[in-house]
Structures are given as C-alpha cells and as structure tokens.
Design goal:
It is a single chain. The protein is α/β, with parallel strands linked by helices and 294 residues long. The protein folds into 2 domains: 80 residues, Ubiquitin-like (UB roll) (Roll), CATH 3.10.20.30; 197 residues, Obg-related GTPase Ych/YyaF, coiled-coil domain (DNA polymerase, domain 1). 50% of the residues lie in helices and 13% in strands. It contains 14 helices and 6 strands. The strands form 2 sheets. Strands 1-6-5 form a 3-stranded mixed sheet, with helices on both faces. The chain has a 3-stranded parallel sheet with strand order 2-3-4, with helices on both faces. Helix 4 packs antiparallel against helix 5.
C-alpha cells in the first residue's frame, strides 16, 4: 500500500528491513453476456472482500464495446442488476431447501435462517444491494459463508479519457446514481496510468502528474477508497530493525492492534507505547516526544 507516511518513517529510522501492508487486487473477466451466463465470475467475486467495477466512459472506435455503444451509467446499472439477481436466486434456492428441511425436522437454527433468508430475498426484490440492510451480529454469522455479492463493499472506477479526468459532470452523475447505495466512486484514465507506468523514476512520475494537474496516481486513489470502504486504517511499528505497516479496523482499541501483529500479544496485552505520526513529524524524534510526556 502506497503511503507517504511509511516512506517518511523509513527515511527517519533507516531500518534494516521495511514492510508495507498490502491488499491483493485480482483482475476478473469482463461482465459480458458470455461470462455472466457461465456463472464463473460470480464464484470468483464471492471470495473477495470488496469489488471494484471499472466502467468505460471514453470514446474510441478502435476499441470494441460489447454493448455496441459507450454508456457508462447503463453499463453500471446492468452489472448492478445482475449482481442483485445473483443474490436473489441464491436466497430463493436457500429458502426452498430450508423450507423442506424444517417440515421434516423442527430445528430452531434452520427456522431462524429461513426467516433471515426471506428477509434478504424481500430486500433484494426491492432492487437494493444487501450492503444497505442492517443485520445483527448473529445474522451476520449466519450468512458469512454464503456467496452474497451485494453484501460486499463496492468501488466504481469510471475509466475516462485524459481530458475528462477533471470532469465534474461525469463524477456527479455517478455519485447521484450511487447515492444511498454505499458505493465509492472515482475517475481514472487507464491510458494515463499506462503512460505513468512506463516512467522510470519517482521524479519523472511526479513531474508527469504535476503537468496533468493530478495529485496522485489512480492506484493510490483506488487503494485509499478500498481501505475506506472496508473501514480499514494503517498503523506502523517502527525501530532500527524494522518499519512495518499494518491494517486495522477503524475504531479498534490497542489490544486489537496488538493482535494484528500477533495473537499472543492480544491475549497477554498489558500496555502499548503509542504516539501520533503528526506529533513525531513536528518534534522530529521519539526522544523529543518523551521529554513532553508523550
């Protein structure tokens, strides 16, 4: 994960080893009629924590479009509907099976699941994704192993031409369409990103971004949106031996952070020495922070 704070800490501590946190991005086939009918793409998505849907919004006659024309909002709606339909079909099949099971044996857990599945099916029939529905902790546990795709966090990356990277109209149209659906939206130009990837040095990339009026690469923006959608933050362990970046659920307490490093640390947690990155940057060293009682 690209994070300027990590780079600064590495420069400050000059450790023997430095390790970034990471998220794995898996490229899936295009959501076209053939891949949808086969159903394999849904199996791949089911294993993910979040989904990034790249929607084409640039014109180029040399590049084929399965829909025959470029209409980013239409394509988004189509995929969104397919994902909702997938979850609806799964819920209906599960209801059918549970109904048959409870008729034979009165099992309390199965009856509770049947009620939950009916609740989810009704919600999906209103054409709303399952990430919008509030579930209890017990209900979450019941469906955790099931392949409900619309329960996953979703990021929409609208692939535009270089000239549209600052097109507020495109961004606003998508944000309006996604309002209330718990979806993060960003603009990206794959063509620009390909050009950036060909540059050799950090300085060349920074100069290129500056010329385009871009603050950061799309990969950096996408990473931040993925972390935001998954409610994750970064924290760092630092020292001369190692500087390491870790991921943690936002709002977690120090024992949970210790558990991310090693489960034994959470079980035997006593205390943690913690300081804020901004304060370290302001004072310049841990020693100066300790003088202030930090």
């Amino acid at each position: 994960i690209i994070d300027s704070r990590f780079d600064t800490l590495v420069d400050l501590y000059e450790p023997k080893k430095n390790v970034r946190a990471r998220i794995d991005l898996v490229l899936l086939p295009r959501m076209e009629a053939e891949t949808i009918s086969k159903g394999d793409i849904f199996k791949d998505i089911a294993d993910m924590d979040a989904v990034c849907h790249v929607v084409r919004a640039f014109e180029d006659e040399a590049i084929y479009h399965a829909g025959g024309s470029v209409d980013a909002l239409r394509d988004f709606d189509m995929v969104n509907s397919e994902l909702i339909l997938h979850d609806q079909i799964f819920a209906e099949k599960r209801i059918e099976r549970l109904s048959a099971m409870v008729k034979k044996i009165k099992d309390e857990d199965q009856q509770k699941e049947l009620v939950l599945m009916t609740k989810l099916k009704d919600f999906l029939e209103s054409e709303k994704p399952l990430r919008m529905i509030e579930l209890s902790e017990d209900e979450e546990k019941m469906i955790r192993s099931y392949p409900f795709i619309t329960r996953k966090k979703l990021v929409i990356a609208v692939n535009v031409s270089e000239g549209d990277l600052d097109n507020d109209a495109i961004l606003s149209a998508f944000r309006e369409r996604c309002e209330g659906l718990m979806i993060e939206v960003m603009l990206v130009s794959a063509k620009v990103e390909a050009e950036i990837a060909l540059l050799d040095t950090k300085e060349e990339k920074e100069e290129f971004l500056k010329d385009l009026g871009i603050q950061e690469t799309a990969l950096e923006s996408l990473t931040k949106l993925c972390l935001k959608s998954l409610n994750l933050i970064s924290f760092f362990t630092v020292g001369k031996d190692e500087v390491r970046q870790w991921l943690l659920r936002k709002g977690s307490k120090a024992p949970k952070a210790a558990g991310v490093i090693h489960s034994d640390l959470e079980r035997g947690f006593i205390r943690a020495e913690v300081f804020k990155y901004d304060e370290l940057m302001e004072k310049g060293s841990e020693a100066e922070l300790k003088k202030l009682g930090k």
